Amino acid sequence: MRLVILGGGESGVGTAILGKKQGYDVFVSDFGKIKDSYKEVLVINEIAWEEEKHTEELILNADVVMKSPGIPDKSPIVKQLKSKGISIISEIEFAAAFTNAVTIGITGSNGKTTTTMLTHHVLKSAGLNVGLAGNVGKSYAWQVADNNYDYYVIELSSFQLDGIVNFKPHIAVITNISPDHLDRYDYKYQNYIDSKFRITMNQTEEDFLIYDANDEAILEWLKNNTVRAKLIPFSLTDEYSEGAFIKNNTMEVKINKEEFTMDTEHISLEGKHNLKNAMAASSVANILKIRKSTIRESMSDFQGVEHRLEKVLKIQNVQYINDSKATNVNSVFFALESMNSPTVWIVGGVDKGNDYHELMSLVREKVKAIICLGIDNKKIIDAFGNVVDIMVEVDNMSEAVKMAQRLSEKGDTVLLSPACASFDLFESYEDRGKQFKQAVKNL
After folding, report:
1. 116 marked ligand binding residue
2. CATH code of the domain in which 37 resides
3. Domain check: are 224 and 288 in the same one?
4. Fewer Cβ within 10 Å of end Cβ, the chain: N or C?
5. In a shared domain, residues 217 and 338
6. Whether residue 235 is found in the same domain as residue 295
7. Tally of CB atoms within 10 A around 24
């Protein structure tokens, strides 16, 4: 069986190692450059590879192709594979066939990383033999090849879900859905929503789907489609006989006639959106019958996720916050909603079809100045030019942070929350966040 892997990054190399272990004839092809550290791994494992090209005769003879999530369906090589009827799957689909572990799959436009890390933290604290995979941690396939975990908590993007056929998490979580990556879905929001719900398509009555019951897109989809899994809603406003909710500053989770409660002020993560993430993670923990004292402890000592509303430093009584992971409008909405002081907002990058209007009232109420950090800032300037008094354009992080210091006064907050992808000026959102933190430290 010939396994061809498109993309020599974390998921590609992980799949190559697992494929080789399972006896496939493996070939890795990357249209860009492969990192030296990954090349070394491929060479040591005697796996054939190429970079900066796709050689058709070495690819079109595949029995199965694993496509890295970053490669769009409209790329020429993918179109050729499809026209030949060759099966194209994601790393998640490939690896799932080689493990009997219980999987918890978590998707959503926002909150999925925090919910994934928090869920993993609870399970690990409970002493379970658990791996963390997907968009965070080491590649799922790599871990299936090297480790023997009993449980996996997997963060799943819509791109990864597009490439599944039989993959079935025992517990699926949809944190929320808001317009994102529409450039990959023909600018049709419905296509993106359907993509997220692929997480439950193979689930049975034995499985669970945990979801935000205050989310319009989710409710609309559930109304028009059937789900076999047992539904576990969570909400900030409604109460359930089966589900999770907040009542009188207490988080309550009711599942399988069991009840779990926790005072919300003991939850370490701040903000309303994090109460939702905590309800989702607590629901998973309760389904897996983890001790209540362990869940409470884990919720109160969890440290949060880097680049997600991360407090960097306080300088001259101005708080600098790194929210570089906010790559869409909905994430920024949560960030601005949790600001309690006048805010200097650093925003911009590669726009993915954003509509900034839903931020209008929050910007009016909380933002005193906007610093645009991107190559093309026209949309942001058009949206907010008449809403804030001060708007500045810069083209590097150091300049953005220096300008923010000039525009802020005692008691203010400087918030990096870009609402956009980072690829115009940075390698990744992590690189953007690290540069922000370094620039703040250099002040």
Report:
1. no
2. 3.40.50.720
3. yes
4. N
5. no
6. yes
7. 20
12 is in an annotated binding site: no
Domain that holds residue 373: 310-441
* Number of domains within the chain: 3
CA distance linking residue 280 with residue 149, whole number of Å: 22
Q: pLDDT tens for residues 23-66?
A: 999 999 999 999 999 999 999 999 999 999 999 999 999 999 99
The whole-model pTM stands at 0.80
CA distances 234 to 93, 126, 238, 301, Å, are 28, 23, 8, 22
Q: Pick from 67, 89, 111: which residue ends a domain? A: 89
What pLDDT, in 10s, does the model give residues 346-394?
A: 999 988 788 898 899 999 999 999 999 988 899 999 999 999 999 999 9
pLDDT tier at 178, thresholds 50, 70, 90: confident
CATH number of the domain encompassing residue 353: 3.90.190.20
Together in a domain, 111 and 260:
yes
On whether 110 is known to bind a ligand per the annotation, the reply is yes
Residue 326 and residue 208 share a domain: no
The answer to whether 112 is a known ligand-binding residue is yes
Side chain identity at residue 200, one-letter code: T
Q: Could you read off the pLDDT of 77-93 as tens digits, one per residue?
A: 999 999 999 999 999 99
Alpha-helix runs per DSSP H in 152-271: 158-162, 189-196, 216-224
Answer for the pair 8, 45: CB distance below 8 angstroms, yes or no.
no
For 217-256, what is each residue's pLDDT tens digit?
A: 999 999 999 999 999 999 999 999 999 999 999 999 999 9
Q: Is 437 annotated as a binding residue?
A: no
